[in-house]
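Page 42, continued from yesterday. The earlier attempt failed because a stray header line got pasted into the input along with the sequence. Redoing it now with the clean sequence only.
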Amino acid sequence: MVDHADPLTPRYKRVLLKLSGEVLGHPEVPGTPKRSGINIDATLHIAEQIKRVHERGVELAIVVGGGNILRGSQFSAGTNVIKKPTAHYMGMLATILNGLALQEALESLGVQTRLQTAIRMEAVAEPYIRRRADRHLAKKRVVILAGGTGNPFVTTDSAAALRARELEAEILLKATKVDGVYSEDPLVNPHAYRHDKLTYTQFIRDNLKIMDTGAVDSCRDGKLPILVFSYKQEGNIERAIAGHPIGTLVGETA
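This time it went through. Structure tokens are written below.
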């Protein structure tokens, strides 16, 4: 029974949560070099938030990035030693490392999960099969989707949009380090302003950088709303799924 008096009652039954790799990475410390890799405390912290959502009955699929370990694009500038397709495959493998870490963190908290990958590696994960993922979600297992789409030159944002549409999610939640979509980079322009709502067309027209335009265009085709919000504020994943006015909502109308 839905408790309408509970401010965190889920508005959506099935969601696709896109987590950037930095969510699982080491926190930035001013004046020190940025550390790569997986931070267990950060991974457990996000897993605890996911557990609370799961306990409210939400069917949750998660696409993970790999930027805390490496980005394929970091090898593409100034050298031909590592070809761009290989660099992108390396980035996809990084997302699988993150997926394994998140799976272990969730299961240590008693949450049933399934890790599926677009690149086949049955020793550590199931291959991504839409019908199988759909059944796992219906059985209230958290499904972690790693390896992007299995193809180079495709971002994890685009993978998230594709999987959200395949699995008939009601919304795509993009958890990032900023609290929404800004007119410009607020770190560069202190006068930049945050949008509360945007249409897909406005997002693409203004070439807003927080999410690639291919992913937004795919969501527009599928009439799938996108919510961009900050993962840094405790409880924001629950608030997003409850439909609270946080972050920036991208949809058909502003």
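Notes: The mean pLDDT is 92.
Reminder to self: strip header lines before submitting.
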